[in-house]
Specification:
By secondary structure, the protein is α/β, with parallel strands linked by helices. It has helices at 3-43, 60-69, 88-91, 124-131, 147-161, 172-175, 213-223, 246-258, 353-356, 366-380; strands spanning 45-56, 96-100, 135-137, 164-166, 179-183, 186-194, 229-235, 262-266, 274-278, 284-288, 293-295, 305-316, 319-337, 340-347. Strands 1, 2, 3, 4, 11, 12, 13 and 14 form an 8-stranded mixed β-sheet that branches.
Length: 389
Amino acid sequence: MDFKNEKNLIILMAFITISFVASLSFLFVTTVSGDNITKEEISTLKKVSFVGVGDNLIHDSIYNAADRRDGLFRDGKYNFNTLYQNIKDDISKYDLRYINQESIIAGDKFGIGTYPKFNTPESMIPALKNAGFNVVNLANNHSLDRGVNGIKNSLAIWKKSGIYHTGLYSSKEDRERPLIIEKNGIKIALLSYTFGTNGLSPDQDFRVSYLNEKSVTNDVARVKPLCDFIVVSAHWGEEGIQSLDGFQTKYSKLFNELGVDVVLGAHVHKIQKVEWLTNKENKKTLVYFGLGNFVHNMLGANTYLEGMGSWTFVKDGDKKYIENAKFTPLVFHLESNQYGLDGSVYRLDKYPLELAKKHITMYNGAPYILQNFKNMVRNLVPKEMIDMN
C-alpha cells in the first residue's frame, strides 16, 4: 500500500470525524439553547386551577349515619368519608379546592347539634382533608350557633388542621390580615362575607365578617395591591328561592365595580344562575350566585341538585385572566339503609338511575326528577359553561 495515500486517507477520515463531532456539538448547543428559550417563555405563563362547592350542612341524620359506620353508636367516633368518596377524584384535579362549611365545627365539648343550632363533630375536618379540600369558608348564618366561645374554639381547631380558612376571626388584627394564597407563582386573595347570623350578635365587630358596603370596599382596596386575583365567598339570597333578590343584585354589582374576579354564592340551598358581569372599565367578574347544598338533609328534591364551580386563573406577564370557567351539576344521594339515612355526592351525569330510585325524595319519580335537574341547569347556566355529558 502507498504510505502517502494511506496518510492522506487517515487525515481525510480525521477531518470528517472532527467535522461530524463539531456539527453534533453545534446542533446540541443550538437545541439546548432553544429549549432554554422555550422554557423561559413558558415560565412566564402561570396557572392555578380552582374548584368550589356549596353548603356542607351536617344534620343529625348525616352525623348519626357516620356514627353508626364507625364503632358503636354514640361512642364519639364518626366516619364521614363515604359522603365524599364518589366526588373525590373530581375535586382532586384542581390546585385549590374550596368548600363552605355551613354548620360550625365548634368542638365536640360543646355538644354535637343539628338544626336550628348546629355543631358538627370534629371528625368532619379529617374527612374534608381526605376528600381533598384545602380552602374553607366559615362565615355564614350559623357561625354563632355555639356562641363566641364556639367561634374561638373552632378557630383553634381549624388552625391545627392546616387547611386555609377565613370568615371568622380571633382578633381585629386577624380580621385585617387578608387570606392570600400563593400557588404556582400566582397570589389569590379570598374574602368572605355573610348577610347575618340568625339574629345573634358577636361580642366584637371583628369576630364575623358581615356583608356591608364599607367592609367590602375597604377589604378589596386592602388586598388589591397584594394579589393577582380576588375571590369572594358571599353568603346571601333568600333561602329556598331560586331567583335572585335585591341584596344579591346590589352586591354582585359592587363586587364587579370594585374589581373582584370571582364570587362564590351560598345560603339559598338551591342552585342559582351563573353569569359574567362587566363594569364600565370592561372588568369582568364571574359570579356563581348559588352553588346550592353539598352534604345535607333538607326537604324537597330540588335541594339535592347542587353545583361545582371551577376555572383556571392565568397570569401571562402583565396579562391576568380566567379561562375554562365551568359549572358541574352534582346530586347528593340520600337513602335509608342499615346506617340510617346515608348518602354520598355524585356528578349528575354519573348518578345511576337505579340509585336515584332509592333516593328518599326521588324514588317515586326518579327519571322525571333527573330530567328536570338537567333542564334547570340549562336554564340557569350558559351553555358553554355546563360540564355535563
